[in-house]
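Listing 4. Sequential folding, example run.
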Amino acid sequence: MSLEIKVPPVGESITEVVLSRWIKNDGDVVEMDEVIAELESDKATFELTAEQGGTLRTIAAEGDTLPIGAVVCNIEDGGAAPAKADAPKAEEKAVVAEDKTSAPVAEKSGESYATGTPSPAAGKILAEKGIDTGAIKGTGVDGRITKDDAVKAEAGKKPEAPKATAPVAAPAPAGSRTERREKMSPLRRTVAKRLVAVKSETAMLTTFNEVNMKPIMDLRIKYKDQFKEKYGVGLGFMSFFTKAVTEALKDFPSVNGRIEGEEIVYNNFADISIAVSAPKGLVVPVIRNAESMTLAQIEKTVLELALKARDSKLTLEEMTGGTFTITNGGVFGSMMSTPIINAPQSAILGMHNIVERPVAEKGEVVIRPMMYVALSYDHRIIDGRESVGFLVRVKQLLEDPARLLLGI
């Protein structure tokens, strides 16, 4: 007796999954609750487990798109299936037929001294045109080459290309010119659809500012060792930006809101989505109630979510929701960009790389580590004054980190 293993329901909005990888192979003995395969939806990766012990018989193949409830494999009762008997090897001895019959030798026709000798007129033509007499079969008496034979040979000879300024063909480019086609993953398809929808369904604008990162960098250098020793995590830039954003959202609640139908929903909490580049594409896990967290708590949460994203272990709950998004293109060297809103949110903050640039301070030109920041927002809910004010508030908090601790 065998048991069918089907695709389980993995979420209300998910109707199909992709069988991304078989962990166990066809014919393997599996135990109850042992992981046998990985399923990938447009939001997360899930593990498929054996519902009983037995021998695995696969039905679906890696890369197949399966609807919820489809049969993935069967598990047969009992131990390992007997190994398949090797097919008898046929003794094949190649018999090489040795052709002992030599090719027939052409009989010599009655050749004479005149065979292949051109007549005087023919010899003149052949000499002028540089034609070898050995390549011509004479039709005259005893095989003599006649003037007519020479004329025909001249007409059949290909004219030589001029040696002067003949165009030279361009050499063929070196290297491979092959193409590779690959089916889009459910995650990539969903991201593509959502990004296009955001561009067409929102009135998206972007405003920019720059932040002097020296105060934060000095603070990190001074306290990074004590911070790591006490909390077990490094003190990065993301915790400062997250904390600054949560404080600024209190002053500009529309940036933390969203549009639902003909209503605006204002959130009294800050669930901050952090854009993370994972092996299978961009994912956006959420830091819940970031406004009530300390810098250490934020750093621990960011590290935990990043490791899960790298290993494709994020759950639907960890990627659902979010009221505001932060994305850091600076880790890849981006100097400036216009990030796309993460719907149904109304705004997203883009961080970029830190570059030392000359700036004016108190009437003097000094070199400071500067970062461009960008706020993309939905103009339907956020006015220009609010967007600029929000970004200026974030800038103030980052350039004076003591405000983050004092809440001023």
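-- end of first protein; second protein begins --
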Amino acid sequence: MKSVIVLGAGIVGVATAAHLQQRGWSVVLLDRKEPGRETSYVNAGIIQSEALCPYAMPHDWREIGNIALGRSNKVRCHLAALPRHLGPLLGYWWHSFPERYKRISETYAQIIACAAREHEVLIRQSNAGNLVRRDGFRILYRQQSVLESAVAAAESLRQAYGAKFSLMSPSDLKKAEPALADAGVGALHWVEPWAVLDPGALVSAYANLFTRLGGRIIRGDAQSLVKSGSGGWSIVAEDGPMEAEAAVVALGPWSPDLLKRFGYRFPMVYKRGYYRHYVGGSRLDLPLCDPANGYVLAPMAKGARITTGAELAAPGAKADFSQLVHAEQVAHKLIMLGRPLEPEPGFGTRPCMPDMLPVVSAAPRHRGLWLHFGHGHQGFTLGPATGRMLAELMNDEVSMINPLPYRAERYRHI
């Protein structure tokens, strides 16, 4: 029986472990925390089948200036963090030019198209259907010109990929969401995405499925990973050393730091996002995105959850809650938000590759070392799909998706 240690128990690592266990591997899943307690928990909880194009970097100098000067709540940038981000950001900017972005989006759409299907398999196997609603989410618009541009973009996705949406007038939105005090100029309702009432609980359900299949979850430090004398890989867990033939690095934003020890230099843009729950207020029916103010307000099991846009901050930097504070102020004008549940907001970090595609690949220079990270804003959506993809590669199966665009070797200087 083939053996593997999967490092990282977020949605990406858990899904990878489950797919490998189902293929007859002996799998140990290692993390310093319980499954789904990091970035997999800190999101809007939407499985986004409509997100067929990744988030591109703007080329409009006014928009870039607003970000640099802190005028945009979608993206905040701390000047002290720029030296660390500059190289990856330039790569991100370069890949966001229309021709390159078009090719990337065509590739990206292939994995997004598999996402809900692969989640559905794990949801059914883990008996987690009670955590999921399958009637979409809405995007509120405040300016007619912005709404018209959004409709045109949505129509392009409908024609290219069959993505389904409906246009809602202000009265339509107020009827669907009577708690709203302001319906703007209308909304788009993407009807096919799924809303998850507790993202952390869904990851935990997948992890429980993995253990029922025979897998093991252990606590330990991924940084202890070393090449073993027998040619495999070993780590030091809480209950002692452990060895396997293969290892998978699925540590999200912490992956590049670990891989530096093995001589790999992966560029990454680190996008921090903040969240908080609110209780005792009005409740929305479906998640609502307010792009003008850079946040999503979603009904969750614990209450209404606000999740913010992106903050470019150095890892380990002190939390800056200004994006969340702004989102709270705006959300209070939309609904009766209620009181904060947590004493202090939480945050997670989205690991974004410069070309907006995740790394799903064997390590180029180390036999038995596999790489699975860099999903950007869509790790929660994509984890089960790319988890299956990596398991197929490791098991010498024909992959359901062409794996070439996701190889580590696309970064020439790693």
